Structures are given as C-alpha cells and as structure tokens.
Amino acid sequence: MKTLVYGPPSQSRTMIERVLADGGHEVEQIDPSEAPAHPSVDERTFDTCLLIHPDESGLEWAQEVLRHRPDVQVAIVGMDPSVEKIHLAFEAGATDVILSGFDPDRLSTRLGLLDQYMSSFVREAPESQPSPHQAVVAEIGRRALAGTEIEVLIAQAARAVARTLDVETCKVLEHEPEKGQLRLKAGMGWTDGAIGHATVTDGAESQGGYTLKSDTPIVVDDLEAETRFETPDLLKDHGIVSGISVVIASTPEAYGVLGAHSTDQRVFSQEDVYFLQSVSNVLAGAVERTRTERALRESEARATSILETTVDGIITINSAGIIQSFNTAAEDIFGYSASEVIGKNVKILMPPPYRDEHDGYMRSYHETGRERIIGIGREVTGRRKDGTTFPMDLAVSEVHTQSVHAFTGIVRDISERRRLEKEILNISEQERRRIGQDLHDGLGQMLTGIGLLSQNLSRQLKKEGSTLVEEAEEITDLMKEADQYARDLARGLTPVDLEANGLSKALQRLSDNAERLFGVDCAFDEVGTGLVHNATAATHMYRIAQEAVSNAVRHGDAERIKIAFASGSEQIRLRIQDDGVGFAPENIDGPGMGVHIMNYRARIIGGTLEISSTPDGGTTVTCTLPGTASPGANNSTNGQRVDGSSDVTDRPNPGSSSSNGRSGGGGCPVAH
Q1: Dist CA 397 CA 375 (whole Å)
Q2: Cα–Cα–Cα angle for 285, 290, 296, nearest 5°?
Q3: Burial of 187: CB neighbours in 10 Å, binned 0-12, 13-18, 19+
Q4: Looking at residue 262, what is its pLDDT?
Q5: Going by fewer Cβ within 10 Å, which terminus of the chain is more open, N or C?
Q6: What residue ranges in 78-129 does DSSP mark as E strands?
C-alpha cells in the first residue's frame, strides 16, 4: 500500500513514517508548503493520505483530494481532541481521526484498520457477507478494540448509524448528572454549533431523560402524538418527527443516550431497534474501557507522585535482578540518574564482595525459596556512583502475580544517623575513661596515701602497746580493700590501655576476673599479635566480650568459657564460646538489650557480629573487623575504624545478629 504523509518535517512525521515502513507501506512525503493546489493533476498515486496536525488549510486540501480521488482514505493524526475539531475532521471526509497518534504501538494498530478499510464506512456486500447492520456493528467493535479514543469512536458511530438507518440526524447525549442535563456530545445532521453545546434536561419530561430512566429502547413514530414526555426544543428546531433512542449503559452510571431521528414519519423495524441497541452495547464497552484506563492513569499518576516526592529511595527489580524503576530519592542517594541504572543489574548499587555474590543469592532464593531479607527491615551497605559506600536501611517486599514477579526495595541513607550515634557513644566512652582515670589517679591515690598513714599509725600503736592496735590494723585492711575496689572500678571503666596490645591484656584480665568472680573455667587464647591502635574500636570489642561472658554466666549457666582473639592480614576476630544451655534461634532478638548493644557496637566500628546458638548446645559470639590495625591510625572518635579508614564512605556492612550464618553484608539492596 502506498501512503502519502502530509505535514512539515518533524520528529513526529519521522516516527510516523517509520511505523508505516515497518507495516509494509510505501511512503511518500509532502510538505504543506509544496502541496499542489489541485491534487488531481499531481503525478503521485497513493491509497492512503495521513495528515499530521493539519490546520484549516490542510483540511481543505484533504477535501480537495477526496473530491478528485474518492477512493483515497484520509486519516488525521494528532488532531485537537475537542468535539468541534473531531467533527470538523469527519465533515472534511476523514476516514479516521487518531488523537494519540504518536504512540508507535497504538498508531500501528490503528493504521492496520485502514489497511482493511475501503473508502466508504459501509459498503454493499454479497448475500454471503454480513448484513450492513452487522458490518457496522463489527466495524465499530474493531475500532473500539483498536483503542480508538471514545470521542472519535462515538463520532464515527453516530455517522455510521445515520447512514445505515438512512436518517437525517443521529445523536450521542452524554449525561452530566451534577448539572441535571444531557449534552449533545456527537452526532450528524445538527446545525452548526449544536454539537458540544446543545443540552436537554435529564428528567423524564424529555425524550433523552425518559430514555435514560428506561430499561428498554424508546421508539417514537410521531412526536406530536407522544404522551410519555415532552418534545425538547432541540428536536423541535430540527423538525424531528420519528426516532429511536437507547441507553448507553456503563458503570457506575450510564454514559448517556444514543438516538436516531427522522424528519419524516416512519415506523422503525425491530431489526433497526436491535441494530441501535448493538451499537449502544459496543459504545458502552468502550466507555467502560475508557473509564478504567482513566482511573488507572490517575492511580498511576498518584502513585508516581508519591514515589517521586517521598524522601526514601524506592527501587523495583524483576526476578532476574534487573532494575525496573528508580525514583528521584534513589537518584539522590546513589548519585545515578534513573536512565543510567534502569535495565541494569541491581548489583551495580552494591560494593564488593556482595556485588559478586548477588547472582548466587538470587539463584538460591528462586531454587529454595529461603528468604534472607524479604518482608523484614535490615541494615546493609550501598555503593554510590562515585564508588563510595554508605550504611542504609533496607526493607524489601515481593510482588508475585501470574504475569509479574518483582521485588520492591525501600532504602534510606543513614550515614548521618550513624555518625551521630557514633559521636554519642564515643562521648559516653570518653566520659567513662575520664571517670576511670579520676578514680585511678585521684581517689585511688588518696586511698593509697590514707592506707599508708593508717599502716604507720598501726605500727606506732603497736610499739606503744596500745589496746587500739587491732582496730587500727582493721582500718588499714579496709583501706587496702577500698583502694583495690576503686582500682577495679577504674579498670572496668577504662578496660583497654592506650597501647596497641592493650586489648589483649584487657581480655586476659577479663578471663582471670571471670574465673575469680564467677567460679567458672575461663580461658583466653591469642592467635597472632592482635594490635589494635584505635582505642575506640578496642574498647567496643572488649565490651562485646564482657557482655558475652556475662550472658554466658547469668543466662547460660555456663561452666566453661573460651575467649579467642585472632588477627591476620585481612581481619581481626574476637570469639567467645561457652557450654551453657543456649537458646532457640527465634529467641535471639528477645526483649533484653545485651544482644542489641553488642550488635550496635560491632556496627559502630565497621564490623560484623555473628551469634549462633542451639538449646543445650552452648552459644558462640563472633565479632569480625576487616583489616589489621594500622600503626599510623590515631585514637580518634570521629568515625575511624581500626585501620583508620572512614566509617561512612569506606567500610563494610554494619553487622546484625544471626542465628546460624554470617550477619551483616552489603547484600542485594532489593532482594537478598
């Protein structure tokens, strides 16, 4: 099929020409400024003419084409959607009007109808072919299924009904319940200006209103003899005598009324009534589809508005881990634009080694169905476009329907929260250290001095044979105990010495004190030389060990405890094992604060915490920090981990407790 495209050069015209070429059309172009005044003398031959955004002169040119070439089909693409413009286009002889012509898929479907269509809307057919009534209903149905806009479809239907029933006028009245009226939305045979403006009441006193409230078609042989309702001025002014009208039903309320009228007295057959009812049913289905699509678009617009204005990043991926959507907040968080990540694997948002492990996580989930993060919140590590990493909260949900299997992740950058939490905890540790130092250097020294004075006093009283010697010696012993107690308090508040090997010494003292105070078998084992130059990190690790030992004794009734401290080239690991009663995995996050605090301490220094336990099988607590301590790292409290790197932009995932596996991990920002 040869198609002439009429319109100035533009991106729209280029796209339309491409769709036509893909559909097998032989395309010619013509610029309106070069269009011949008399198309009949034009050497071009074509079957279809597409006018793109035509103005009044363009419609006149189309009329001239049809006058000389009535066999040519004319379609207008990108028409003004107003009722008046649509009817003006059909009055000019257009076969079709495509309002949304710049959607390639919809345009291709609509052009497919033109390929099947002859120059007239209804044509005479052999006896073996469907009747004209059936052909029209089928044609309107095909147009409705092809996605024809409802405004265009009702205009086409009105013209087809008028021609098929051989009546002078046809109307489509749209109900406007809030105004109590029916408006002439489309039709044929009405005076200029009536379509889009003329109205009748929706009450039972008009034919339209009476039809709207009826369950059956309303047939009028002679309006002058009609007693069921009054003849509205709209019909009187056009000399209407006879007619049929039916309701265009829809939900939640009827769309309006379809009617065909004659200026001659006429008896309409039952076939005519069935025909009009069939057309009405097709239009009702199209109205229903349009309303559904409109509601869907509005719902999507609201959802999009929410997604684009929320402060949390929202990311969706398909079952293969490919990013499907990426909202504005996610763009701000990760530094990527949506166009840069949509269509790519979500692991682009993860730091190593989790990036390399992600595909394995996805395969494992699809094969086993075991969920590691879906349906719960978790703290993981994300990776920005510039390569920096950061802690974030992640909540994942799964959408699984017959046609869609996707995951939605909501992410929130918590870098600032972690910084503030660390600052608060560091201030707390500094205050502990200050109090411990004051106890040691102040109160401890005073008690030592008083003890010496008391000891000298005891000796002097003994030489003099005083009866107060025993009391003096008792005071001396009490002063020694008070001095030792003050030093023990100071040691508890400042457990780790500032030297690099201070953590090892503190853990050894913890082991010794556990044996002495709790009466358990507690051993300390050191593998390698665990040098931790960052006093903050060392203190947090000591507190984790202290809490684990305390829990083993108080809650686990342990008899044997082992504290192991090992270091290597890539990590430092602290492990506390006991032979206590243990607990069930589901009770790991109980109401107590101990586990949560240990977890938090591990996160704050950039480490991970693992807790594994079974009833009657004891408990193992493992804290792992990446990298050995750097001798050049300072004893700062501003977010440095044990190797001195930044806690916010270059650290692994903050840890979380686990009953039987590795905790923490960057993991999949959406499905891990």
Answers
A1: 5
A2: 125
A3: buried
A4: 94
A5: N
A6: 96-98
User: Residue 30: is its pLDDT beyond 80?
Assistant: yes
Q: Tell me if 483 sits within 8 A of 455, measured CB to CB.
A: no
**How buried is residue 408: exposed, middle or buried, by Cβ count under 10 Å (0-12/13-18/19+)?**
middle
Give the angle 248-108-3 at the CA atoms, nearest 5°: 110
* Residue among 185, 179, 107 nearest 150 (CA): 185
Determine whether 129 is exposed, middle or buried from the number of CB atoms within 10 Å of its CB (0-12, 13-18, 19+): exposed
Got the DSSP string for 492-555? HHS-S-SSTTHHHHHHHHHHHHHHHHH--EEEEEEES------HHHHHHHHHHHHHHHHHHHHT
In eight-state DSSP terms, residue 441 is I
Report the C-alpha gap between 503 and 270 in whole angstroms. Answer: 100
Any idea where the domains of the chain sit in the sequence? Answer: 1-119, 156-309, 311-411, 414-494, 500-672
Distance of CA 35 to the CA centre of its chain: 50
The DSSP 8-state label assigned to residue 442 in this structure reads I
Highest mean pLDDT among 148-162, 491-505, 529-543 belongs to 148-162
Question: 640 φ, ψ to 5°?
Answer: -90, 140
Check if CATH label 3.30.450.40 holds for domain 156-309. yes
* Contacts for 318-323: CB closer than 8 Å, 24+ residues apart: 318/405, 318/406, 318/407, 319/362, 319/366, 319/405, 319/406, 319/407, 320/345, 320/362, 321/345, 321/346, 321/347, 321/358, 321/359, 321/362, 321/668, 321/670, 321/671, 322/346, 323/348
Q: Do the domains spanning 156-309 and 311-411 agree at the CATH topology level?
A: yes
In degrees, rounded to 5, the angle at the alpha carbon of residue 193 between the alpha carbons of residues 192 and 197 is 145
pLDDT value of position 39: 60
More confident residue, 345 or 100: 345
Question: 407 pairs with which residues across the strands?
Answer: 317, 398
Rounded Cα distance, 134 and 632, in Å: 90
Q: How far is the C-alpha of 144 from the C-alpha of 132, rounded, in Å?
A: 18
What phi, psi does 617 have (nearest 5°)? -115, 5
404-447 tens-digit pLDDT: 778 888 999 988 887 887 777 777 777 777 777 677 667 777 77
Cα dist from 386 to 340, 343, 383, 411, whole Å: 13, 20, 8, 18
CATH code that applies to domain 311-411: 3.30.450.20
Q: Is the pLDDT of residue 634 over 60?
A: no
pLDDT, the chain, mean? 79
Distances from the Cα of 59 to the Cαs of 20, 31, 50, 52, 91, in angstroms? 21, 14, 11, 11, 9
Give the CATH fold of the 500-672 domain. Answer: Heat Shock Protein 90 (3.30.565)
Burial of 224 per CB tally in 10 Å (0-12, 13-18, 19+):
exposed
Kindly report the backbone phi and psi dihedral angles of residue 253, in degrees, each rounded to the nearest multiple of 5, phi listed first: -145, 160
CB atoms within 10 A of CB 241: 17
Pick the CATH number of 1-119 from 3.40.50.300, 3.90.79.10, 3.40.50.2300, 3.40.228.10: 3.40.50.2300
Q: How far apart are the first and last CA of the chain?
A: 54
Helices (H), 183-337: 207-212, 233-237, 270-309, 328-334
Q: Across residues 213-228, what is the average pLDDT?
A: 89
- The amino acid present at 590, given as its one-letter code, is G
